[in-house]
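Write out the 3D structure for:
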Amino acid sequence: MKRRYIPFILCFTLAAIASCSDSFLEVKPRGTDLEANYYKNETEAYNGLVAVYDVVGWQSSNYVTRIGAMNAASDDHLAGGGGPNDVSQFQVFSTYTLTPASGPQDELWRRNYSGVFRANVLLQKLTEVPMDESKKKRFIAETKLLRAYFYFDLVRMFKNVPLFTAPVSTSDMYNVLQAPPADIYTQIEKDLQEAIAEPLLPDQVVIASEGGRVTKGTAYALLGKVLLYQQKWGPAATALKEVNGTPGVANTKYGYKLLTNFGDLWKSDPGSKFNTESIMEMSFSSTSAGSWGCVACTEGNVLNIMVGPRGYKAKTTAAPDYVSGWSFLVVTKDLFDAIHNDPRYLYTIANLDSLEKNGIAEYEKGFNNTGYFLEKFAGRVRNQTTGGGAKELNYPQNMYEIRLADTYLMEAEALVRGGESGGVGTRSYDLYNAVRARVGLGPLQATIDNIFKERRLELAGEGHRWFDLVRSGQAAAVLGARGFVAGKHEVLPIPLLELENTKIEQNKEWGGTK
């Protein structure tokens, strides 16, 4: 039987949800109860919320992640790995040879619709769950925010996607139609505004055990980003200002403040997780005992082993304690040249070329080798698992979905595009230069070119660059040599399997009619 990835019916039983990771919460739903018989009490509702959060950190058994895929397609990275067919989804995206049948789009579609489906089921069930009403209202607000997050990924990746605000029956799933992108954005904004309006969604999480749960600050940040992508400059700036407060000063309402030391963002110790710069964060753990039998089930961060230098061997005590990794997502010479003289360089790029030339370490030259690797996420011996399972699958480093330097730069962009000069005395100038000052750089005018250059260096390797190139209209010029075709590669193809026996239409950029 052909395996079909119909995203709208991925989790009809709690047996499916039981394979979900426990994310920020040490809770894992158990049993094989049918979904129809579940959600009988507060504990089961809580487990359902965990299942929605779980999708944010989605990792597939073929090692495709959202951040990994978007890095592979950007000008800052090459696919790398062991050869031209190693994790082929990265390879074809990196060279723009993807087709509706090959590429990362299957996993990206599955990820986000899995999140939408779980959110819709929980929102439907919560109304009838006998539980504390204040907790229920918070659960609803969190779930709507997460549904907006998943739909934002879908619309900016695929453009024409189905819109569901309630579970769809098996009898109807083959008749679903795509909604206009404007309708998707309207629903995203509605979900976020309703989350913001809920008094019981906290401004910030103050209980350590709840680290990773979204807050009102998260909702404002995501809303500002969504509005920015629609070129609604004024409303975007207003939403982001709520998050950012006074540039360079702690926002006491939401608890946000730029970390003093940029390097502290990339530590894996528990004290560095959910720090004051983190607005939305993907949580990983070294204690889940994840094994090769189910890579997708592990709580560990697979990017930590994927991006490390292949065949790494220390030759002196001065060598970094990198784990020998799989050499994916190697850093391009172009990014190396752009960041080499920047204070963020040492925390962003692992220069194995230099280490080898100086006799400090050696490594195997993998596919697309440049000598440069992603320092931010390279696995370290000191972070290897002590909780059992395969050590390669159990690295604990969290990943930022949104952080404060990102929202500073987005607000600066919205203000400049909205007419602000970006010169001394303007808010955009202060926001932009607060990011620079944090790493010891002097002030510059906040022009659009400067802001995008700053985004590239500040957020390198974090999955933003491809989206920034596409939304700013720079992608064809920057990625043309890699195969990017204007008018085609700004969106991903609808996965081929989603078109079979359904009314879903392929995007016109990929030969369809939508």
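The longest strand covers residues 278-282.
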